[in-house]
C-alpha cells in the first residue's frame, strides 16, 4: 500500500475529464491532478488550483530589471566614469530609458519562462504518473485524472469504483 | 477500442472564430500523428529537403570564407568607405531584423488578441524570427572592424576602466537586439516543451526518445502545469510585443538621431517597424507555401491562413506606402534645401532605379493583393512576396547609402559601389537561414501540435454524454455527437 501513488482514470475527451473531475470534487476528493495533451479550460477551477505567484514574480522582477538597467547607467555615467559628451549633462536620464526598458523586459520575460518551470518543479524526469498504462498518449490524445493516495478520502476499492462509474474508460492503480 | 470520440466537423455548425483553420476529418490522434511524423518519420523528407540543405550548407561555407577573409584583411573588403561607412552590412542587418519581427508579431501579438489562426503558423514564424536574428547579428558584429573585441560593447568592469556610451542609439541597439534574441529563443522553447513531450512519447528510436525526453524537461501535461504554462505564455507574449516594437524603433533611432538629411525625421521609428513587418509577412508566405506543399500540410495551413497573411502583408504595405508619402511631404514641404535636395537626389539622382523599383515592388505590385483571386493563387502570391522582400531591401539601401552619399558639403559627396564580398556575405547569410530553417523542419515540429489540438477541440462541437447511465464499455462505443448535448 505504501508504494501506491494513486488511482488513475483514463478518458477519451476533455469533457469527460472535466465531468469526472467535477464529480470527484463534489464527492470530496481534493488531492487530484489531471493530465491532458492540451490545456483544458475550467479544470484548474475544478481542481481548486490557482497560483497567482507567477504574475507577481514577473512584475517584481520586471521592476527590478528596470531599476538595474537605470541604476547601472546612472552610476557609470554620473559617478564611476563622468565624461563630458557633446556638452550633455551627466545625468541625461531620457537617454537612459531605452536600455532600462530593454532590461525590464529581459528580467520579466526570463522570470516568466524560468519561473514557470521552477514553480512547476521542472525539469523532473521521473514522476510516478509515468507508470500509468498508456500514459504516453497523454501527450497525444488521452486525458487522465489521478486521485492520489494522500487524499484523506482515498480508498483503494471505493475510489476505483467511483472513477469507473464516472466515465473512466480504464482505471488503473499506479505505483510510485 | 476507439482512439477518440471527437467528431468530425462535417455535420454541424462550427465556432466561426476557428472555421476553416483546419480541414479534413481531424482528431487529436491524427493531428499528433501527422505533425509529429514530419520529425519522427525520416522518409517524409525528400529531394526538396536535401536540395535546400545543400544550398544552405553551401551558403554557410561561403559565409565562413567571407568571415575568414574579413578577419585577415579588415572591413576594407566591403564597399564601406567614406562617405558611405555603413554599406551592405547595415542594410542587411536592418533587413534581417525586420524579417524576424513578423514572426514575433504572429506568435505574441496574435496570442494576446486570441487569434486562433496563429496556431498553425506560430512555430515556423518564431523559428524564422530566431534564424533571421542570428543572420542579422553577424553583420554589425563583424563590421565593427575588430570583431574579436566585440565584448567591449557590453557593460562589465574592465581593466580599461571604461563603460559603454549610454547616450548612443548604437549601444541601445546592442541591448535591444540581444534582449530580442534571448527572449525570442525563450518564447520559442517554452512553446516547444509540450510538443517535445509528444515527440518523446511517440518516438520509437531510443536515442530520439532520450534526446526529446531531456529537451522537454519531463513535461507530463499536468493541469497545474498547464495553468502556469498558459499564464507564462500570455505574459511572455505581453512582454514580447512591446519588445519587438522597441527593437526596430531603436534601429530607426540609429539613423534618426544623426543629422544627415533624409534620416533626421520623426516618422522613422513607426515607418521602420511597418517595413519590418512587411518584409516579415512576405517571408512567412515564402516559407509557408512550399512547406505546406512538400509536407502535405494543406489541412493545417489552410488557404485561410495564407489569405490572412496576404491581407496582413497588404495592410503593412499600405502603412509603408503612407510612410513614403509622408517622407516626400516632409522633404518637399520642409523648406529645407538639404532635405529637398536629398529627396530629389533619391528620386532622380544616380540611384533613381533603386527608388523607383522600390515603389514598384513594395507599393504598386502589392496592390494586386486587393483581389481575392491573387491572394488565393499561391504562385502569384509567392511572386509578390519575393518582390516585397526585394523592395524592403532596396528601401534599406536607399536609406543607408543614398543619404550618406549626398550630405551637406558637396566635397563629401560620393558614389557607392559594393564589392564581391558584400554580395558573398549576404548570400552566405541567406544560406545560413535556409540551413537552420530546414534543419528545424527535420528535427522539431514545424507546427505547434498542442495548439492545433485545441483547434480540433474548438472545431468539433463540445458534447457531454449522459454519464449517469453510462458504464465502462458503452462510454467508448457510443457514436459521438449523436446523443450528446452541447456544454456551452
Mean pLDDT of chain A: 87
- Element string of chain B (H = helix, E = strand): HHHHHHHHHHHHHHHH
What portion of the residues of chain A fall into strands of 2 or more residues?
5-15%
Query: How large is the share of residues in beta strands of chain B?
Result: under 5%
Describe the structure.
- The complex is a heterodimer of chains A (176) and B (488).
- With 176 residues, chain A is α+β, with helices and mostly antiparallel strands.
- Chain A is built from 5 helices and 4 strands; from the N terminus they run E-H-E-H-H-H-E-H-E.
- In chain A, helix 3 packs antiparallel against helix 4 (97-119).
- Chain A is rod-shaped and about 80 Å long.
- Chain A has helices at residues 14-26, 43-46, 53-80, 97-119, 156-164, and strands at residues 4-11, 32-35, 143-148, 170-175.
- A 4-stranded antiparallel sheet of chain A has the order 2-3-1-4.
- Chain B has one domain: Formate dehydrogenase/DMSO reductase fold.
- In chain B, 66% of the residues lie in helices and 0% in strands.
- Chain B has 16 helices and no strands.
- In chain B, helix 4 (118-142) packs across helix 8.
- Chain B is globular.
- The two termini of chain B are 28 Å apart.
- At the A-B interface, helix 1, strand 2, helix 3 and helix 4 of A face helix 1, helix 5, helix 7 and helix 15 of B.
Strand and helix layout:
The complex is a heterodimer of chains A (176) and B (488).
Chain A: E1 4-11, H1 14-26, E2 32-35, H2 43-46, H3 53-80, H4 97-119, E3 143-148, H5 156-164, E4 170-175
Antiparallel strand pairs in A: 1-3, 1-4, 2-3
Helix pairs in contact in A: 3-4
Chain B: H1 28-40, H2 47-73, H3 88-112, H4 118-142, H5 169-202, H6 206-215, H7 223-256, H8 268-294, H9 303-332, H10 337-348, H11 352-364, H12 372-376, H13 378-405, H14 420-443, H15 449-459, H16 474-477
